[in-house]
């Protein structure tokens, strides 16, 4: 529906980047590499889908990285030390993270506080709580974990579509449908347009705010579980700074940081672009992996400049009109 | 009688509404009656209480006293949403819709047609298209609302309001940003809705439009009801008299003997100066030792002229000269550099810094003019503050008191002192006596004359015609964002100003009369 043109630009950048990489390293154009790309970035894709809702609604959620960290530690402890069955541990941690997000949303709405501050507090809170649980890395040895790690759909050409990649694809698809096809999704855009106006038009702004942050934290919790599958461990220092990678992916995906426009598909492409840069650097072998950050930074700049340009273009005919009106 | 809706009952009945904000009484015992199927203009100058009345009726502000009835049934909405539920919808000048959503989503937000939890996009678009077709609009409803002109956004807002089963439609300055053709379309829609039995409240400061569209007129002044008339039987001059509160008969010659005709040097001149959609190009000469008054109704382009002159708004055509030399006025900084000062109308928000002391407020503009690297020493500051506190008789005479604690008149004096400290050649005052008690009024007026005798050039905006006549050497009259008349010398009197505001034809008639 909306925000597709910027997402289209993201898609073009991704395809062009992929083609350029494939020219230099023909091996990149294989299902094996693509499958790994999806697996390595599964947790990022999941959390970024949630962040897309938050940013379109005009907010921001800085707590997601810490929630992922907390989730991995909680799951590891629950399974390894407290003897919970993994599925029970998952349900418990998801309930916790959803409640955490709902609480942040409620605070933002009731006290009319900037989301930046509230989720910053949430970020410290969740990270602190994970340190409180344990400061060491706890390996998870439950049989479910090896089963999940071994499970994969064979792709033609030797690639593997792993379970966590599938989870991510399902969530991204579900998120896109939720955003573009439901009343909830329309209200998310409405909030991003103007909270005051949306409220005047009958949108229950408070409930929406609580639900949006709840969704973001819930998806961060799922991302945390996926991350624990990926590393087979829980560690309170995992996913430090991931909130920023996530925001970068959302913005590169064409979502307006000021809210009101964007798409989950764009965000997914933004995640893949970051993954592609990492893959390129791995293939090259001589580059420091920090080049990922530098390239991401340059891309971010590019996309923000592009959005400003598009916004200015969109405004121009209106001012011309106003001028002609008299 | 109360139970069944009686067709003879007025659609919307407002009785004895009062509303105060702190000590300020915004509305006092106001009555308002809207019949089904009529277009009723609600008029009044700035501060008359129009918007307060609308906000009280629609539940945005709670009321202190009074009753609101719809078809005889008392209602007390607590929010705009509750007012909509009661059948009163408001469309504000700045369209309260979401430009980032599609037209269809805007029309059906929160009430989209659904199936299995999914919005039926096709059905929603079909309905949106059908709804807008009723209003003579055939547009792509899937495109973002922001892509369309303000006129179409207005129509969309009205369509949404009507579709939410509004019986009373309040249009607050709907035509302010529309061109002539768009206004025609809007009027067509308004007439059609009135025919369907909807009562429309039309707030506007364009009197031509009021006469073209409205059946009846209610005029407020200073929070009180001053008249409710049939439009057809209310001459325009009479209407302006109601709005401005002046008897034409008492065209006092209370004018100070300002009009001795010595030739004064031109301080600043503007030739064909204007900005499209803001103020039509005008010629204006401001001379040393002379007060030029700007008169006109609210929205006639007075403040806009002042902002162009000062450089707060960029002109898109014409020439400006200061002491004969061409200058470019692109920003307030340019204005200040050329020796201009500007005291805006909104003293509280645009002028004084309430938390700072009298001294700090006074030296603000001078310090800005000198630049940060040449700070005024505390001794110089004290000296300047003391001088102006004495000269303007600011009370209490304590330069270290926060300005917020001073009365309105004294705040205005502090603002004046701020600009006087920069030794300006031209001072623009926008409504210098608004919100000031009567005693301070006279004092400000005396100050204006004194400053002028010292060779300063003054451009003063005021809605108080008595006042403007008292201190002005010349008066420029504005109507519909254009300078329509310049009165000088003997011609400066309230009658002539009123006539010029009302219409050319009346002005000609009056001129023939004198």
Can you characterise this structure?
- The complex is a heterodimer of chains A (326) and B (514).
- Chain A is mostly helical.
- Chain A has helices at residues 4-24, 31-40, 42-56, 64-80, 86-110, 115-133, 143-150, 163-181, 183-193, 195-200, 205-231, 242-252, 264-284, 291-324; strands spanning 138-139, 152-154, 160-162, 233-234.
- Residues 317-326 of chain A have low confidence and may be disordered.
- Chain B has helices at residues 50-57, 80-85, 103-108, 121-133, 150-163, 180-195, 207-213, 236-244, 302-310, 332-337, 347-351, 358-370, 378-391, 408-420, 438-453, 465-471, 494-502, 504-513; strands at 12-21, 24-34, 39-43, 65-70, 73-75, 88-91, 114-115, 118-119, 168-172, 199-203, 216-221, 224-230, 266-275, 279-287, 291-295, 317-322, 325-327, 340-343, 426-430, 457-461, 474-479, 482-488.
- In chain B, 46% of the residues are buried.
- Chain B contains 18 helices and 22 strands.
- Helices cover 35% and strands 25% of the residues of chain B.
- Chain B starts with 11 loop residues before the first strand and ends with a helix.
- In chain B, strands 6-9-10-3-11-12 form a six-stranded mixed β-sheet, sandwiched between helices. Chain B has a six-stranded mixed β-sheet with strand order 18-19-20-15-21-22, with helices on both faces.
- In chain B, helix 8 crosses helix 17, helix 12 packs parallel to helix 14 and helix 17 (494-502) packs antiparallel against helix 18 (504-513).
